[in-house]
Amino acid sequence: QVQLVESGGGLVQAGGSLRLSCAASGRTFNVYTMGWFRQAPGKEREFVAAISRSGSITYYANSVKGRFTISRDNAKNTVTLQMNSLKPEDTAVYYCAASDTIRGVTTTKYDYWGQGTQVTVSS
Question: How many C-beta atoms surround the C-beta of residue 26 within 10 A?
Fold first, then answer.
């Protein structure tokens, strides 16, 4: 098992930046594919970004491509989401997720989830 704790959310103006972090504890971190998802009020949880176990492969939703960057530090058991050029439509609760068996990294079929961190982008 792994426990995930997100941090770094907050309120930012449109065009600004935020850096989300997810700290993992428990089982060896580098066995997990890691993902970031978000959920806005009244909407389904949606894929944002994912990163392979080694960090060599990254995936992004079209809506964030070119603005967000996912990275991981396996020595520190952390995964980070750098968010630039934020837009009001990026407002949501952002969740970190982990799986050692997932095949479709853009699906919500991850095994472990954090509690989420709120990101609010004002216009």
Answer: 13
Q: pLDDT tens digits, residue range 89-102? A: 999 999 999 999 88
Each as own residue / partner, the long-range contacts of residues 60-69 (CB below 8 Å, 24 or more positions apart, any chain) are 61/106, 63/89, 64/90
Pairing mode of beta strands 92-99, 117-122: antiparallel
Helix, coil or strand: residue 88: helix
Tens digits of residue pLDDT in 40-60: 999 999 999 999 999 999 999
Instruction: List the beta bridge partners of residue 18.
Output: 83
Closest CA relative to residue 75, chosen from 54, 58, 59, 96? 54
- The residue behind tokens 């095994």 is 111
